[in-house]
Amino acid sequence: MTIHIKYFASLRDRLGRAEDRLPLVGEMTAAEVWATLWPEMPLPPNTLIAVNMDYAQPAQPVNDGDEVAFFPPVTGG
To answer: What residue segments make up the domains of the chain, in order of their start?
Structure first.
């Protein structure tokens, strides 16, 4: 039972990698995925989360095989 985690843009640069895999043990939310992988670093404010390519809230449950993506808000003009 594994979930796939992706990091984009400045988060990828800050963390030094583009992705991780995490064994899913019991019930877990998207925010708990971050906290498990990065216990020393709180989820940065305004970070967007997607579960299986759909925007999600931090409390969104994740399941075996899900993809969880974290990325900073996009701005442009």
So the answer is: 2-71
pLDDT in tens, 5-33: 999 999 999 999 999 999 988 899 999 99
Is the CB of residue 21 less than 8 Å from the CB of residue 2? yes
Nearest to 20 by CA among 72, 68, 73, 71: 68
d(CA 35, CA 22): 12
- CATH superfamily assigned to domain 2-71: Beta-grasp domain (3.10.20.30)
For the entire predicted model, the pTM comes to 0.91
Cα Rg, the chain, nearest whole Å = 12
